[in-house]
Amino acid sequence: MKTLVGFVGFLWMIHFCNGLLSSRIDRLSSSSSSSYLTKDVFWFNQTLDHFSPYDHRKFQQRYYEYLDSFRIPDGPIFLVICGESACGGISNDYISVLAKKFGAAVVTLEHRYYGKSSPFKSLTTENLKYLSSKQALFDLAAFRQFYQESLNLKLNRTKIENPWFVFGISYAGALSAWFRLKFPHLTCGSLASSGVVNAILDFYQYDQQIGESAGPECKAILQEVTQLVEKRLASDGEALRTQFDATVLNIDGDFMYFLADAAAVAVNNLKIHPSNPCVANEKNLQIT
């Protein structure tokens, strides 16, 4: 019976991972226009290496601006930090409510190496050495200075500083907090939602909490699914990745992370069936 339950869980995980991957692609490619205040793209000529006095290479970094609520000339500027994903525009969320209330301009900068803001066409190990939170913080500082100067130019003035506030969620939330600490002269404040400011290399406590939140029955099933996947990965990894529609993840560690992330999303973000914590609510996944 236990093996059957594990097999059912295995099939469920395949179904869910396929749905998770598809939903993420759909969110990135076909978001409705009402989800964004603007999707009009602008470009900033960003420094590749902020810490080298000899490397003067630049790359194009994508950004967006929304000025409909801006109180000219002294309104605040809200800098919304995009994190570890493509940035498709300025979202129509609570920040837009705040912008209207306080007469703020809203700008958002895509993180280096994500979306259309990659300095290189190939992500080799050598090319990835410029991908770091430290470089990202200085990206934000350079962009902040550039945008303030360009705004002053538009308003035909010099040496005027609008009040700046930075916003971020999760990793971007950490950047928001760190930006406030690193550049207190460039911002009046920051809002770091779920900011992961304490970086831990082997953060196994995250998965521990997922197990506790799922409950003992679901936790046992997820553990058995993981064991089944590990065995199949060792014997026929290519066929297994095909089942999960994840053939692009040709590194075992990446594939196992994808599997763990799928389980975490299910526990964190989806309603769970009250009688069986490992059976997803039919309204969410359309399975029983």
If you had to describe this structure to a student in words, what would you say it looks like?
- The protein is an alpha/beta fold and 288 residues long.
- It has 2 domains: 2-25 and 215-285, no CATH class; 48-117 and 130-193, 3-Layer(aba) Sandwich (Rossmann fold), CATH 3.40.50.1820.
- 45% of the residues lie in helices and 14% in strands.
- Helix 4 (171-182) links the parallel strand 7 and strand 8.
- 24% of the residues are buried.
Characteristic terms for this protein:
glycoprotein, six-stranded mixed β-sheet, globular, 45% helix, hydrolase, 14% strand, 288 residues, AB_hydrolase_fold, serine-type exopeptidase activity, two-stranded antiparallel sheet, 2 domains, alpha/beta, dipeptidyl-peptidase activity, Rossmann fold, 8 strands
Strand and helix layout:
Blueprint: H1 2-29, E1 36-38, E2 42-47, E3 58-66, E4 77-81, E5 90-91, H2 94-102, E6 105-109, H3 133-154, E7 164-169, H4 171-182, E8 189-193, H5 205-214, H6 216-243, H7 252-269, H8 282-285
Parallel strand pairs: 4-6, 4-7, 7-8
Antiparallel strand pairs: 1-5, 2-3, 3-6
Helix pairs in contact: 1-6, 1-7, 3-4, 5-6, 5-7, 6-7
Task: Offer a concise description of the structure.
The chain has 288 residues and is an alpha/beta fold.
Q: How do the strands line up in the largest sheet?
A: 2-3-6-4-7-8
Distance between the termini: 18 Å
The overall average pLDDT, rounded, is 85
Order of helices and strands: HEEEEEHEHEHEHHHH
Shape: globular
Q: Look at the helices and sheets and give the structural class.
A: alpha/beta
Q: What is the percentage of strand-forming residues?
A: 5-15%
Q: Can you summarize the main beta sheet?
A: 6 strands, mixed
**CATH architecture descriptor text of the largest domain:** 3-Layer(aba) Sandwich
Helix content: 40-55%
Total number of helices: 8
Low-confidence stretches: 1-8, 20-32, 280-288
CATH fold type of the largest domain: Rossmann fold
Q: Give me the Rg, rounded.
A: 22 Å
Tally of domains: 2
Number of strands: 8
- The level 1 CATH classification of the largest domain is Alpha Beta
CATH superfamily of the largest domain: Alpha/Beta hydrolase fold, catalytic domain
